[in-house]
From TrEMBL:
Residues 43-78 form the HTH cro/C1-type domain. The keyword Transcription applies. PROSITE patterns: HTH_CROC1. It comes from Paludibacterium purpuratum. Gene3D superfamilies: lambda repressor-like DNA-binding domains. SMART domains: HTH_XRE. It comes from the Bacteria. This is Putative transcriptional regulator. SUPFAM superfamilies: lambda repressor-like DNA-binding domains. It holds the Pfam family HTH_3.
Length: 103
């Protein structure tokens, strides 16, 4: 991994210097610290946007709360269909109400 190249690209993207970025990238490369995946961020943000707790959200998407926790904490990667649903809920959080209705 070219840490300097990646750091410059990130700083150019956001338009400002990030003094601790190189250290963070070096730690990530070394396996130090926690890595958060885009799927984890998407899941958490979608749930927060709906205003539901983990338990309530898990019920809405018909999955055990422990599975949702595992996805949010990065222990397991959610299936593609779940990621797709989260993208829909990010743009239309009100759709979570439709998931509460019996089929």
């Amino acid at each position: 991994m070219d840490i300097e190249k990646i750091a410059k690209a990130i700083e150019t993207d956001i338009g400002e210097a990030l003094p601790e970025l190189r250290q963070a990238l070096a730690e990530a490369e070394a396996g130090i610290g926690r890595v958060t995946t885009p799927e984890q961020i998407l899941l958490r943000e979608a749930r927060v946007k709906t205003g539901l707790s983990q338990k309530e959200f898990a019920q809405r998407i018909n999955t055990p709360p422990s599975t949702l926790r595992d996805w949010e904490q990065g222990r397991f990667k959610p299936p593609g269909a779940v990621v797709c649903l989260m993208r829909l809920l990010m743009n239309h959080p009100e759709l979570s109400n439709e998931l509460a209705s019996p089929v």
